[in-house]
Amino acid sequence: MTGWAQIKGLRGDSDLSERIKCDLWYLENWSLMLDIQIMFLTFLRRNNAN
Q1: Is 21 exposed, middle or buried (0-12, 13-18, 19+ CB in 10 A)?
Q2: pTM assigned to the model
């Protein structure tokens, strides 16, 4: 799974309060286009990591 916090680099041992802020921002700004953007960025970053 992916989300706005993960796209912003907040995962694993990152600051929990920052991840919560990103999650709240996502909930307040949700749209289909935002979900498509998150999926696209996830795909790009995953392919750049290989």
Answers
A1: middle
A2: 0.74
pLDDT for 2 beyond 90: no
Amino acid letter, 31: S
Give the integer Cα–Cα distance in Å for 19 and 25.
10
Residue-wise pLDDT for 13-34, tens only, equals 888 999 999 999 999 999 999 9
CA nearest to 19, candidates 43, 2, 39: 2
Q: What angle do CA 42, 45, 46 make, to 5 degrees?
A: 80
How many CB atoms are located within 10 Å of the residue 26 CB? 16
**Residue with structure tokens 């790009």?**
44
